[in-house]
TrEMBL record:
<keyword id="KW-0689">Ribosomal protein</keyword>
<protein>
    <recommendedName>
        <fullName>Large ribosomal subunit protein bL19</fullName>
    </recommendedName>
</protein>
<dbReference type="Pfam" id="PF01245">
    <property type="entry name" value="Ribosomal_L19"/>
</dbReference>
<dbReference type="InterPro" id="IPR008991">
    <property type="entry name" value="Translation_prot_SH3-like_sf"/>
</dbReference>
<dbReference type="GO" id="GO:0003735">
    <property type="term" value="F:structural constituent of ribosome"/>
</dbReference>
<dbReference type="GO" id="GO:0006412">
    <property type="term" value="P:translation"/>
</dbReference>
<comment type="function">
    <text>This protein is located at the 30S-50S ribosomal subunit interface and may play a role in the structure and function of the aminoacyl-tRNA binding site.</text>
</comment>
<dbReference type="InterPro" id="IPR038657">
    <property type="entry name" value="Ribosomal_bL19_sf"/>
</dbReference>
<dbReference type="InterPro" id="IPR001857">
    <property type="entry name" value="Ribosomal_bL19"/>
</dbReference>
<dbReference type="GO" id="GO:0022625">
    <property type="term" value="C:cytosolic large ribosomal subunit"/>
</dbReference>
<comment type="similarity">
    <text>Belongs to the bacterial ribosomal protein bL19 family.</text>
</comment>
<keyword id="KW-0687">Ribonucleoprotein</keyword>
<dbReference type="InterPro" id="IPR018257">
    <property type="entry name" value="Ribosomal_bL19_CS"/>
</dbReference>
Length: 127
């Protein structure tokens, strides 16, 4: 392992966060800490993960898309953000692409993603 990968693994270990195994097409719920004045609360953001960038490293991000009041809303989350309380996988999607940007132009039934019923976790993935 090269030096940069070792430093990155060290930083991830120091954060003490466990990120579930998810990919594009999965419906996920992200518990995000929101600060309002002096109080902080956890706000859930549930939608379809349409992309993951920079792998599972410290700079990794993922984009979640949901429909809110008939309007499509996307949000990009850093994978190891301190503001993320929890990431929960609601359902696994069966897709054939790594980036699902085509969902931006789809509405209704054509924007549906089939559920992956026989999902097997990756052998090297962390639970």
């Amino acid at each position: 392992m090269d030096l940069i990968a070792e430093l990155e693994a060290e930083q991830i270990a120091s954060l003490g966060k466990s990120v579930p195994d998810f990919k594009a097409g999965d419906t996920i719920r992200v518990g995000y800490k929101v600060t309002e004045g002096t109080r902080t609360r956890v706000q859930n953001y549930e939608g379809v993960c349409i992309s993951r960038k920079n792998g599972s490293g410290i700079a990794g991000t993922f984009t979640v898309r949901k429909i809110s009041f008939g309007e499509g809303v996307e949000r990009v989350f850093p994978l190891y953000s301190t503001n993320i309380e929890a990431i929960t996988v609601i359902r696994r999607g069966r897709v054939r692409r790594a980036k699902l940007y085509y969902l931006r132009s789809r509405r209704g039934k054509s924007a549906r993603i089939a559920e992956d019923t026989n999902y097997k976790p990756l052998s090297g993935a962390k639970a």
